[in-house]
Amino acid sequence: MRRVLPWAALGVVVLVVLAWAAWPDGGTATPRERARDLATELRCPDCEGLSVADSSTSSARAIRADLRRRLAAGETEDEVRRAYVDRYGESILLKPEGRGLGVLVWGLPVVVFVLGAGGLALALARWRREPQLHATAADEALVDETRRSDHA
Amino acid sequence: MSHPARWIAIAVAVVVVGIGVVLATQVGSDPRADTTTSQLVGGPAPRLALRDLDGHTVDSTSLTGKAVIVNFWNTWCVPCQEELPALQSFAASHRNDPDVAIVGVVRDDTKPTVRDYVKAEGIGWTIAMDPGSQAALAFGTRGQPETFAISPDGIVAGAQIGPVNEHSLEKMLAAARRQGT
Amino acid sequence: MKASLGVLALALGASFAAIGIVTLALGIRRRDDSLLRLGRRFVFGVLVAGILAVVAMEWALLSHDFSLQYVAQNNARSTPLLFTITGLWAALEGSILLWILVLGGFLAFAAHKFRARATDPLVAWATLVGLVIALFFFALVLGPANPFKTLAVVPANGNGPNPLLQNHPLMAFHPPMLYLGYVGFTIPFMFAIAALITGRFGEGWLTDTRRATLVAWGFLSVGVLLGAWWSYEVLGWGGYWAWDPVENASLLPWLTATAFIHSVIIQERRGMLRVWNLSLIIATFCLTILGTFLTRSGIINSVHSFTESGIGPWLLTFLGLVAATGIGLIAWRGDALRSPGRLDSPVSRESAFLVNNLLFAGLAFVVLLGTVYPLLAEALQGRRLSVGEPYFERMTTPIGIALLFLMAVAPALPWRVTQGEVLRRRLVIPAWIGGLTMVVALVLGARGVTDLLVFGLAAFALAAIVRQFYVGARARRIAHHEGWARATARSVRSNPRLYGGLIVHVGVVLIAVALAASSSYSTKAELRLAKGESATVDGYRLTYLGNTVTVSDQKRVVKARVRIERGGDDLGVYAPAVNIFPNSTSAIGTPSVRTGLLRDVYLTLISSPVDGGRVTLGVAVNPMVVWLWIGGGFLAVGTTIALLPGLRRRRPEAPVESPEAVEPDPVPA
């Protein structure tokens, strides 16, 4: 029990800190903050792949202003995204949508992770169950050859 | 039991071949081709409600019944300067067509500079200022210059990003006239 | 004349490679030692040919010989000397020349290093594979990507390099470093293939190529970080990593290579993970080729793809052949690859390395998926999509955190089996330091579960690393009665691989902290200032002093001078600029960065002082960015130390040998 105590205490400290940080701040985000977050999800149309939040081209600034306006007027993030997709096409979104083919890009990593973890667990279990207690024919041959060369 | 390596290798091979085939089919296609098509084509044109250089309103509702060429530009973008002669000869050849209108929309520029430029170049069609880039956003422009053709009943019939020439302008106008017939 | 010399050199190189391949193949087939010894000499011929070709191109560049199409496209009379020289790698064709030169160098180094074993089939096959790769690249430059193509009409002046490539001296370092990294992995790859072919997939090929792998990894790491530095200080969009397809292309081989350099330690010690290691190095090499394909074929729009050329199909075919060969060989050898070693316990250093492999492979998979997904979607459904930062951040952050945790815990894990007590005792203080750091970070204002975890785990890892140094030095102190400094130095010297690796980990931890801090706590603003006007951003007072215009042959530069003050202290005058090049329609912005230990002030000039003398400045205050570069420094130092030869104990009274100096562990009480 004494050995585990420092670790249990540490666990409590860490959990408290994380819970405190994860606790939602009082009140929802301001339209400005929401606009900033949304701006990181939209691609600046005349850049090579920068987000609207990062780019300083005039269209990016115009879009940021437009986002603030729309969110302040009460539109939801989804409505704004839809409006921009209608205007610019799907490639304006930097985060692929989860429907249709998008399931692949979000789901595959999870599948791969699960497979990997599963494979690891299986491998560990198999290694545990099959300790190599029996010599293979190759091992026997090696020992014989060593004996012979020792005598030679 | 055989080493899983063999089966994993085959699975990986299938994936790699799949990706390879996908990449191979894309090699020939022009990655920039898509940027010349606009999402708006075939749909209703956004409303223009701007002011021209003298402060009068330019409203697209007053242009219904005409085929409208909307050209987004400004004075300092080099391809815009390059396409100006084509626009001018297009305007000249349709000067007496009552059902054709040209509207130039300027963003990221200042009134005095535009006024001077219009005067120096003898630009005869309506020029509207888009100070907050609202019209540019509404039309989903991706750069400068960008030109749209709107049919008499308000449908976007054609769009081109990049400088136009007379041929492409005539094509867009024909498409706008055909739309809805 | 220079064009002919260049083409001749390339043709010679191709011939040497081809003859070398045939000679070695015959020598292996007939077990003819003299043929094998002869065959390896052609490697040096390949190197000489590469040198000649590069010399011819540099000569053409330096003499502004515009009869060569490549020089006309990438050089002008007004191009400064440095950028004339770097013009060699300014575009596709020339950069393949660089690749050939570096490849020739590495192959010659390997041929020289293994000269005593020239008749060993493993070495012979490896050299053969190396020459086949060289032959491919020669075929590329003699075919679709010929840098020595001449123009019928010689222009009076050339276009000059792309403006982005003549803005900063870093152009001299970033591509060569990357190439040294990419090409360096050819050596372990060719030995891996040789091992599969000859059936000698024990540990021999690993130890033979260990140093080359580390050197390549070191250069690739520095190359990638230089790319980030360039993005930040030169390109001026405000960040250091855009998850651009080409950036990802350089990251992918780095990820698999990092997994590889860790995983080989397990194979050396315990003979395990053979298939993993073979697969990882084959994947790394394939990814370097894929990276070149993505960058240079124009298939993906990016900051880097200045040219679209016909080499796409060639690279893709080569990549397919390499992948098919590697996978085919592994599938063929199948069962014989079974490793003799076994995992004894799920909590051991071996399993930590195995988990490490899985995490890095997962990371590489995610980055590859995100990069290739838009192409997939377009091919399968005709949709145009983008995948950008939000996706990559969301996917890679959990894996990064898991890796930080592993970095803290794994070096303390014993081999084979762990007694819980040993592990707990070793890690309790570093873990508490991590926990307390989280509390401090929370108090100082850090929010976000991810950031706190990163800070806490980083402190945990750093403390665990310091503990390693301390334990090693303390043992020496006790044994040899040395002072702390001497003991630490000697202890590092006696096991450079371990301590070099720990220093590299310090670098990685610093980079992780910098990544978390700078992405979450940056402040951005745009200021519109008239001359003499000031504004304050995040405690910094910025005053616009006026602008200057400088004109040179190469470009016209408009600078806005800004004074930065904080708390009354004058921090200096910084001048973000806009560069206008004669042959380009777009202007290139240059940011001005005040680098500080805790914060950077990042200034960009958004709009020139046109109307009314007002200027629009972009201001960002980015915390901790300098620690990315400092971390890179640690990476370089650690890699260099890890390359040092270990000292073998010679004194007779020393305990029984182990291949590496055993880390002295206090006996559990």
Overall pLDDT score of chain B:
81
User: By helix and strand content of chain C, what is the structural category?
Assistant: alpha+beta
CATH superfamily of chain B: Glutaredoxin
Q: What is the tally of beta strands of chain C?
A: 10
Radius of gyration of chain B in whole Å, from Cα? 23 Å
Please count the helical segments of chain C.
19
Could you give the order of the helices and strands of chain C? HHHHHHHHHHHHHHHHHHEEEEEEEEEEH
Question: Mind describing the biggest β-sheet of chain B?
Answer: 7 strands, mixed
Oligomer: heterotrimer
How would a textbook summarize the main sheet of chain C? Answer: 6 strands, antiparallel
Q: State the distance separating the first and last CA atoms of chain C.
A: 79 Å
Topology pattern of chain B, helix = H, strand = E:
HEEEHEHEHEEH
Strand content of chain C: 5-15%
What is the CATH class name of chain B? Alpha Beta
| Global morphology of chain B | elongated
Q: Kindly report the greatest chain-chain contact and the residue count on each side.
A: A-C, 46 and 62 residues
User: What is the number of helices of chain B?
Assistant: 5
Q: Radius of gyration of chain C from the CA trace?
A: 27 Å
Structure description:
The complex is a heterotrimer of chains A (152), B (181) and C (669). With 152 residues, chain A is an all-alpha fold. Chain A has helices spanning 5-22, 31-39, 58-72, 77-88, 102-129, 137-151. Chain A folds into two domains: 29-92, Helicase, Ruva Protein, domain 3 (Orthogonal Bundle); 102-151. In chain A, α2 packs across α3. With 181 residues, chain B is an alpha/beta fold. In chain B, strands 2-1-5-4-3-6-7 form a seven-stranded mixed sheet, covered by helices on one side. In chain B, β3, α2 (78-93) and β4 (100-106) form a beta-alpha-beta unit. Chain C is α+β, with helices and mostly antiparallel strands and 669 residues long. Among the domains of chain C are: 1-161, no CATH class; 523-626. In chain C, strands 2, 3, 4, 5, 6 and 7 form a six-stranded antiparallel sheet that branches. In chain C, strands 1-10-9-8 form a four-stranded antiparallel sheet, covered by helices on one side. In chain C, β4 and β5 (569-574) form a beta hairpin. Chain C is globular and about 85 Å long. The interface between A and C is large, with 46 and 62 residues.
